[in-house]
């Protein structure tokens, strides 16, 4: 698959579980992003990485832990989540931060029980 | 940091009519303004963008206008069709700062 891929597409987890979301981009981009999409906040930026370095943490609770081992891969590690964390988590990439088109992945639908 | 406000949150139009979505931004240094369309169950995709050195840009039935003095920009869709039904997000960015998205407008085109 080309573009931006995300796995898993659906995830159900209990509040005591630990899980990880994976994002991979095949576009040669340098910047990657995690967004949370819910009915209350349609497109909420969580983290930004540029050349593997985190450049933005939008006051995200520590139960979300990002990891960017290289410019093509981005992970979001989840632990002790709350039901209100249930949402669609979108990954995106772009050539760089700033005035560049962002390419989104299909998202992971997360349900916390 | 940048703050982008978007109105209306929902918009219903009859097929064939025009639709206008408006956004304002706070950072006068912002110079890049993209618009994304997200169809139901799909990912957001860029449909048009404008940079601060132009006041208007068109692409077939869609156009975007920018007023830097007033710090607002708008998306215009003419001759709307059912496939235009989606959520539309405006955004703003300055220099190499992150893109800040608006809160989205759900557009419904009624056949």
List the keywords.
heterodimer; A: 113 residues; mainly beta; 7-stranded mixed β-sheet; 4-stranded antiparallel β-sheet; B: mainly beta; 6-stranded mixed β-sheet; 5-stranded antiparallel β-sheet; 11 strands; 0% helix
| Uncertain residue segments of chain A | none
Structural class of chain A: mainly beta
Total number of helical segments of chain A?
A: 0
Residue-averaged pLDDT of chain B, rounded? 94
Mean pLDDT of chain A: 94
Order of helices and strands of chain A: EEEEEEEEEEE
Q: Percent of residues of chain A in beta strands?
A: over 45%
**Shape of chain A, please?**
globular
* SSE pattern of chain B, N- to C-terminal: EEEEEEEEEEE
How many β-strands of chain A, per DSSP?
11
The percentage helix of chain B is: under 10%
Helix content of chain A: under 10%
Query: Quick one: which chains have the greatest interface?
Result: A-B, 19 and 24 residues
Poorly predicted runs of chain B are none
Number of helices of chain B: 0
Cα end-to-end separation of chain A: 31 Å
First-last Cα distance of chain B: 41 Å
Question: How many individual β-strands of chain B?
Answer: 11
**Shape annotation of chain B:** globular
Describe this entry's structure for a reader.
The complex is a heterodimer of chains A (113) and B (111). Chain A has 113 residues and is mainly β. Chain A contains no helices and eleven strands. In chain A, the strands form two sheets. In chain A, strands 2, 4, 5, 6, 9, 10 and 11 form a seven-stranded mixed beta sheet that branches. A four-stranded antiparallel beta sheet of chain A has the order 1-3-8-7, with no helix packed on it. The termini of chain A are far apart. Chain B is mostly beta strands and 111 residues long. Chain B has strands spanning 4-7, 10-14, 19-25, 32-38, 45-51, 56-59, 62-67, 72-77, 86-92, 100-101, 105-110. The relative contact order of chain B is 0.35. Chain A binds chain B through residues 33, 41-43, 45, 48, 55-56, 90, 96-99, 101-102, 104-107, and chain B through 31-32, 34, 36, 42-46, 49, 51, 87, 89, 93-101, 103-104.
